[in-house]
Amino acid sequence: DESERPPPVVRYRMNNVTTTSDPIGNRETILILTPLARFYQGYWDNLLQLSYPHELISLGFIIPKNWEGNTATSQLQERIKKTQSGPQKKRFASITILRQDTEIPLQSQSEAERHKMQNQKARRAAMSKARNSLLFTTIGPTTSWVLWLDSDVVESPPTLIQDLASHNKPVIVPNCYQRYYNNDKKAMDVRPYDYNSWVDSTIAQSLAEKMGDDDILLEGYPEMATYRSLMAYMFEENGDPTKEVQLDGVGGTALLVKADVHRDGAMFPAFAFYHLIETEGFAKMASRLGWTSFGLPNYLVSHHLIGKICSIQN
Amino acid sequence: DESERPPPVVRYRMNNVTTTSDPIGNRETILILTPLARFYQGYWDNLLQLSYPHELISLGFIIPKNWEGNTATSQLQERIKKTQSGPQKKRFASITILRQDTEIPLQSQSEAERHKMQNQKARRAAMSKARNSLLFTTIGPTTSWVLWLDSDVVESPPTLIQDLASHNKPVIVPNCYQRYYNNDKKAMDVRPYDYNSWVDSTIAQSLAEKMGDDDILLEGYPEMATYRSLMAYMFEENGDPTKEVQLDGVGGTALLVKADVHRDGAMFPAFAFYHLIETEGFAKMASRLGWTSFGLPNYLVSHHLIGKICSIQN
Ligand SMILES: Nc1nc2c(ncn2[C@@H]2O[C@H](COP(=O)(O)OP(=O)(O)O)[C@@H](O)[C@H]2O)c(=O)[nH]1
Ligand SMILES: Nc1nc2c(ncn2[C@@H]2O[C@H](COP(=O)(O)OP(=O)(O)O)[C@@H](O)[C@H]2O)c(=O)[nH]1
Ligand SMILES: [Mn+2]
Ligand SMILES: [Mn+2]
């Protein structure tokens, strides 16, 4: 009788949970976390082609509770059903879908609108809370790694997880690019997309010093030139994909974190934290907890091309 | 065949998880979290006598991996075994025990040694990380409340959870006292124990302003008089136990938190956060996320009496 069985007691020795440069060899579990406003088939296809053993991968999604979110949830659930009843090798260990209880401002707006400077703080504060809710409720005692992966990352090497983990860094971020049609070259081309991975500058720091307590520095806006070194611009054609750069801010489009960094308390500040917010604030918080962030300027993942002209930052 | 079954997909609508002043009526689940260095029978007895439905209570412990921790783990597991195979009504919903992977400085030392000012920062930073590990790995999507309860809290009203929850506050803390033998009165008496629940003062704030980035303010040390209003001193004999005071810092001996406050990202900073750390830093972080903390100066819980003379602060 179920009701008579003593409820479960689970014991974990946290030093048995390793996080190494050989995660497959050590059977390390990874949690892939995706805040998801819109479903992209390209995202799902890319996820399925990851060669990291799927039985070691758990997935977590947080989806807004509005109409668009309902659509995205149905689309996602349809794909999940198919995958989880398909070939054993492709199935994931477990999947959690959270429907958000709060509305995120501006999420239904266009990319240009979303990226407007005055809209960024409220939006990124809300995104921080969504990421934290997802993180706090899905990370478990046996999680070794957390891979943050935006729902519009549609292309990455199949070995993404192994490649990033092989660096054995607390926090590591690839360079997020966008494919587009270059009208001058009359050919497809790539351009930088994520401006949140950077090395700090003295100019940015002195800008920060003059700011009010609640003000945040934002990257990619000409009216607030920070002179930070952006990883987006460190890409070299045919450059070594294993080249590392130590970073002070990171973006979240694709971001691998040792679970212990989060377990120590590193989350996504929804408030100005050293005048930083969300993923950039996360890097600062990790650093206050003694963990260093790194970027791979020549290791690319691709962001979906939305509409025709995409980034106001170009 | 187990291996053929599609792995579970779990969907949660977070707005279905309520956190109200009538938690029993609404069948709200609570997670009781205890960092535990030493096992006290009084703690376990007190836990068992809580009248909140045990089937709505999950327990989480984090225990150091040293010799003392091994002993505490055995003692705890023995009690758990008895309780979880005893009367259905007394059994808890689930229990998680984490064995820490890092050593906490000074935890095996005497109370006097632990409370020395220069030892506090390292100790409380390590305690913060232990609390965060426990929190991040046990809080789930269906958790409504988190009750932080130190392992040396040996006495509380059976209605502790209902009483605290009835205030319907994001963060609420009772007043933690210690029973002792008063030699002057030749009788048992009570004295304040927890100095971490306070209302801020302008003096403390100007002390903080002059401090280095990494320095922290500590309460209860004559050499650093903060002139904060300590809840410990607001206790009135026969005072109204429902009286509320808004607080800027909180202690963690017993502390009820709406799970959404944590899910938004409020954790225990292991670094100087506005010159605060651990539970006091938590209150500040909650406030930066828009959540206010309250204390109940006339609602008492009791801290174990260790040794003969206990608090260097008296
Ligand atoms: N849960 C949730 N996710 C969102 C919301 N808005 C955006 N996202 C997701 O968060 C990630 C980053 O958002 P996106 O709009 O692509 O940001 P940008 O590329 O930096 O402009 C993507 O995976 C989005 O699908 C929201 O309101 N709620
Ligand atoms: N996991 C863990 N818990 C600890 C450690 N040291 C103390 N604790 C627990 O943390 C709580 C607060 O510690 P305690 O020594 O009572 O602090 P104090 O009463 O403020 O001096 C109690 O529940 C302790 O059992 C440690 O090293 N690891
Ligand atoms: Mn995007
Ligand atoms: Mn104690």
Task: Summarize the helices and strands and which ones pair or pack.
The structure is a homodimer of 314-residue chains.
Chain A: E1 9-13, E2 29-35, H1 41-48, E3 57-63, H2 67-84, E4 94-99, H3 111-115, H4 117-138, E5 143-149, E6 153-155, H5 160-165, E7 171-182, E8 187-192, E9 198-199, H6 202-209, E10 229-230, E11 245-247, E12 254-258, H7 259-263, H8 278-288, E13 293-303
Parallel strand pairs in A: 2-3, 2-5, 3-4, 7-13
Antiparallel strand pairs in A: 5-12, 6-13, 7-8, 7-12, 9-10, 11-13
Residues 150, 152, 303 of chain B line the site of one manganese (II) ion.
How many separate helices of chain A? Answer: 8
* Element-by-element helix/strand order of chain A: EEHEHEHHEEHEEEHEEEHHE
CATH topology of chain A: Spore Coat Polysaccharide Biosynthesis Protein SpsA, Chain A
Q: How many structural domains in the coordinates of chain A?
A: 1
- How many strands, which pairing sense, and closed or not: the largest β-sheet of chain A? 10 strands, mixed
CATH level 1 name of chain A:
Alpha Beta
Mean pLDDT of chain A: 91
Largest interface, chains and sizes: A-B, 53 and 53 residues
CATH-level-2 architecture of chain A: Alpha-Beta Complex
Strand content of chain A: 15-25%
User: What ligands are attached or bound here?
Assistant: guanosine-5'-diphosphate, manganese (II) ion
